[in-house]
Amino acid sequence: MLLDIAFKTLWRRKLRTLLTVLGLATAIQLYMMMTAILSFYDTDIQQQVAVFAGKVFIQRPMKAVGAGEDFPSMNSSIAAASADSILALEGVNRAESSALLFVPLQADMRPNMPPSYFIVGMEPGHEKAFLGNRKPQSGSLALQDPRGVILGTRAADHYRPEGSPIAARPGDTIRVFEQEFTVIGVLEGASSLYNGMVIMPLESAQELFNRPDTVSAVILTPFRVDAVEEIQSAVHAAYPNLQASNQKDVADNAREMMSMQRAFFGLINQSTILTTIMVVMVVVLIAVMEQRKDIGTLRAMGSRKRRILGMVLGESLLLALGGGLMARSR
Question: Are 56 and 222 within 8 A, CB to CB?
């Protein structure tokens, strides 16, 4: 009965009701969008961190020693001779470890995210060190050809043949810095870290960017998982100017990077909720002001205050439901 009265009241003022519902729908949709974006960030970062389970990732820190500020660092530089010595440390599974070279091609518009597209040079035969158990969407993940490259899904779309609506596939030729390479494989869809990769043999990347004696990072896989901290300590002792991170360090770094995004999105969501409440309150207040005569009549007829309050709350509920349904349908 109370909802029926509230519905009739709102129906008499169709335009104002419609505009209010549209405003609420927009606010609710903004809240849902911000929540979805934050959830995407969290999932993406977790997928990146999972790659380094049981591994040690070594790079030169840009600011402070600890969990790296930039991961993976596109500015890190380690002498190739030092990388070889690190890879020869006792307890390191050399077959699943590799020196790496990172070179950005295009920055990402999102803060604290890997570049949209970047080169990854890695040692042929040691692909598992960085790719883990990733599977190819098509082709092969073995860097046997010095002019062969493996593309992430986004990179494959970026390097699609000119005039073709189809992303680059194994066998296609792409140009990187005016040099031709043949696509030998495309990675299955994964996190942002992998989707923008152009993976090539380490020596090819060093030659392409004139960095024959340096690498960006070294990734180590111990024979025993419980030897991670032992290898970290050995790296710190031999190379105190380098940063050796395990999965926990990388996760801590990721949480630190995400703290700013969470605060930003949280502020937007709180503002959205507050705005939604204010809109409903203002509209209901105006409705009550306009219905003073009706309310006075109802009171004179013996209606209790609870009944009047129920009618007002019914209008608020209908507006909120209308906005929510419209937000979900858009």
Answer: yes
Report phi then psi at 44, rounded to 5. -65, -45
This prediction has a pTM of: 0.68
**Residue-range domain boundaries for the chain:** 2-45+259-329, 53-245
pLDDT per residue over 204-234, tens digit each?
999 999 998 999 999 999 988 788 888 888 9
75 SS3 class: coil
CA atoms of 36 and 259, how far apart (whole Å): 16
- Whole-angstrom distance, CA of residue 315 vs CA of residue 299: 18
Distance CA 319, CA 329 (A): 16
The string of pLDDT tens digits covering residues 40-58 is: 766 766 666 666 677 888 9
Tokens of 205: 């990347």
Give the closest residue to 170 by CA, choosing from 157, 186, 181. Answer: 186
> Cis (ω within 30 of 0) for the bond into 124?
no
